[in-house]
Amino acid sequence: MIRSLLAALAVVALPAAAETGVDWQFSGFATAGAVYTSSHALQFARIGIDAPGGNRVDAGPDSVLGLQLNGRFGERSAAVLQLITRETQRGDHTPRPALAFISHALTPALSVRAGRLRSPFFMLSDSADLNYSHPWVRPPVEVYGLNPFSDIDGIDLLYRTPVGPAHLELHPYAGRSRIPVIGGGRATLDNLVGLSVTMEAGEFSISAGHAIAELSVQRSSARVAALPGELRSLLSGDDARASFSSIGLQWDDGRWLFSAELARNTADAFTSSARGAYASLGRRSGAFTPYLVLARQWQDEPAVRLATADPGLGALVSAFNRSRNQSQRSLTLGVRWDFASAAALKTELTHVRTERGAHGTFIARGDPFARGLDNRAINLLSVSVDVVF
């Protein structure tokens, strides 16, 4: 798919460049980050983004490098290619195209885009990798860990229009997405369709979205392969129904900044259904922005829904569900220091309490299905340097 997208970019770009010339723009961003986990038994992981590190200090969750090339062909057509490298769930750093699309303005208010696009599931999806644009080291994982599918291969429309003193954007989209699974395998969203809506008025903005898809999960780890067939069929398969909804708001008057978001994912197989919410408040004072974040995630349905009288099978189901239950609550205190015009240093301390029957956003060291690691208090110390260029 990506080869065909890049070929499409070339087909559009080269003739246009020859006939009208192209306005090229190059930009980039980078984060060097590290997170320290106080627990000896659990290691922090951004589900769907990185592989859990083996050490208590881990650079994988937040470190990223992105390079972007924008080309404009005349007044109505453009192309974007963005390559990023960061640790994947496979544990490698293979660069991949996070964006690779062409766009065309059908009217001054309506544009169409096709190719690899950001999946607009969250309020901050468009800037999820661009850490410099956020006050925090990372967006709150209690919400942004609910849906790990960061991009889609498909098509969308962007319609922008004034509504009184505000501006309204309607963003319907369709396509498919896939990501690797920890331990081996792949998860896929097929027949994905959704709509996001954003309203901006001065210092305030609000956004909401809803999407539905067919979810397939194929787990290929040796540990899953060794499970009884009845259980394996509940961990892997095709065509589960899935949906995702979110609503978020931001307010920024140049000194105070406030944001909050509520999201929910549902799936009738292979993964848990859950809700998450956060509220964040910060205040700029010169080059410094101290901030506070409260966040929580609740599980609505476990990943495996199996009633069995077999004690051995029941224990396996409980262990797997516990390892996939991200329910937790957290309090974060941090400060951002903009020490240069395009660079910021962030430091934050997070106190996490995982729920009973949940590992939260952590993976057990050694045995991912280990017992007795739920309902714990864990501290995280996170530091990052973010730059744009």
Protein described:
- This protein is mostly beta strands.
- It has one domain: Porin (Beta Barrel).
- Helices cover 12% and strands 54% of the residues.
- The protein contains 5 helices and 19 strands.
- Strands 1-4-5-6-7-8-9-10-11-12-13-14-15-16-17-19 form a 16-stranded antiparallel β-barrel. A two-stranded antiparallel ribbon has the order 2-18.
- β13 (256-267) and β14 form a beta hairpin.
- It is globular.
- The protein starts with a helix and ends with a strand.
- Residues 1-18 form the signal peptide.
- It comes from Thauera mechernichensis.
- Keywords: Signal.
- This is Porin.
Key features of this structure:
Porin, 389 residues, mainly beta
Percent of residues in beta strands? over 45%
Task: Report the order of strands and helices.
Answer: HEEEEEEEHEEEEHHEEEEHEEEE
The proportion of residues forming helix, as a percent range, comes to: 10-25%
- Going by CATH, the homologous superfamily would be Porin
Q: How many domains?
A: 1
Q: How many individual β-strands?
A: 19
Low-confidence stretches: none
> Main sheet?
16 strands, antiparallel, barrel
Query: Whole-number average pLDDT?
Result: 90
Q: CATH class, please?
A: Mainly Beta
Could you give the order of strands across the largest sheet? 1-4-5-6-7-8-9-10-11-12-13-14-15-16-17-19
Query: How does CATH name the architecture?
Result: Beta Barrel
Give the count of helical stretches. Answer: 5
Spatial separation of the terminal alpha carbons: 29 Å
In one word, what is the shape? globular
InterPro entries: Porin_dom_sf
Keywords: Signal
Protein name: Porin
Organism: Thauera mechernichensis
